[in-house]
Automatic annotation (TrEMBL):
Coiled-coil ranges (or none): none
Residue ranges annotated for the ABC transporter domain, each copy included: 3-228
Organism the protein comes from: Halobacillus mangrovi
Domain of life: Bacteria
Lineage of source species: Bacteria, Bacillati, Bacillota, Bacilli, Bacillales
Record-stated family: Belongs to the ABC transporter superfamily.
PANTHER family: ABC TRANSPORTER ATP-BINDING PROTEIN MG467-RELATED, LIPOPROTEIN-RELEASING SYSTEM ATP-BINDING PROTEIN LOLD
GO CC list: membrane protein complex
Keywords: ATP-binding, Nucleotide-binding, Transport
Protein name per UniProt: ABC transporter ATP-binding protein
Recorded GO MF terms: ATP binding; ATP hydrolysis activity; transmembrane transporter activity
InterPro entries linked to this entry: AAA+_ATPase, ABC_transporter-like_ATP-bd, ABC_transporter-like_CS, MacB-like_ATP-bd, P-loop_NTPase
Any one Pfam family match given in the protein's UniProt record, by short name: ABC_tran
Length: 228
């Protein structure tokens, strides 16, 4: 399930100005890897995840995921792709406040053709005991666990995480990173993580640095450290 991004350009029109969110971005992500994307605000990190996950279209270049060419897909195929292949995790959890933990996760399960088991998923993220709670009754770290479960239960090929620890204190953030690493190792899910935190880069197999829409550096960590 290699992800190959080749020479991708994406612009936004902002009044009279054209913003180059991605400039000739090229990248290869191998199966089962954890990849972190570092770079200042506005450097194109979210845009990169959004085009890989099939949320956004792009103007030129190609993106191939498991040999499927996203650039040539029609909208309905792109939606299918997004539902079955990609799991999204955001800084602000984006849970539905009127639904319980289990019901929020059920939203993910219903999207997928090949979902995982509910009880097993709840147990894997450590939220089985709180399955009947509502989001407001949970801590930030617990809400993020639910958001991870909602993405994971789809049995996605990859998880796209946009600042997943950005709203959490350092210790809780480390627990979330450990959970993402556990998911990577248990299910073989490829995990892409956007972060401002240089330290998070050290747990990844591969680190990508972006600046002004360009991928300016890519390197592999020979022995990624465990988030303690
Ligand atoms: P981050 O730096 O955490 O990635 P941003 O504030 O850059 O967050 O972006 C958050 C969301 O808002 C993204 O989904 C992005 O596509 C969107 N966004 C960013 N800048 C603009 C903009 N100028 N106009 C409209 N939407 C934007
Ligand atoms: P990052 O995630 O690194 O903060 P983004 O990918 O969110 O960067 O944004 C890259 C650039 O594209 C920024 O200049 C941002 O303001 C702009 N941008 C992102 N989304 C939109 C949007 N929906 N409309 C207009 N401009 C956007």
């Amino acid at each position: 399930m290699t992800i190959i991004v080749n020479d991708v350009n994406k612009t936004y029109a902002s009044g009279e100005v054209t913003i180059h969110a991605l400039r000739n971005a090229s990248l290869k992500v191998y199966d089962h890897k954890i990849v972190t994307i570092l770079g200042p605000s506005g450097s194109g990190k979210s845009t990169l995840l959004n085009v890989i996950g099939g949320i956004d279209r792009f103007e030129s270049g190609t993106i191939k995921v498991a040999s499927q060419d996203l650039s040539s897909m029609k909208d309905s195929d792109l939606t299918e792709f997004r539902r079955n292949y990609a799991g999204f995790i955001f800084q602000q959890y984006n849970l539905i406040p009127t639904l319980t933990v289990e019901e929020n996760i059920e939203v993910g399960r219903e999207l997928s053709k090949n979902p995982l088991d509910m009880k097993d998923t709840l147990e894997k993220v450590g939220m089985y005991d709180k399955k009947d709670k509502f989001p407001y009754q949970l801590s930030g770290g617990e809400q993020q666990r639910v958001a991870i479960a909602r993405a994971l239960i789809k049995n996605p090929k990859f998880l796209l995480c946009d600042e997943p620890t950005g709203a959490l204190d350092e210790n809780t953030g480390k627990k979330i990173l450990r959970l993402l690493k556990f998911v990577n190792e248990t299910y073989g899910t490829t995990v892409l993580i956007i972060t401002h935190n240089q330290g998070i880069g050290e747990m990844a197999h591969t680190v990508i640095k972006m600046s002004s829409g360009e991928i300016v550096e890519t390197y592999d960590n020979v022995s990624p450290i465990e988030p303690e």
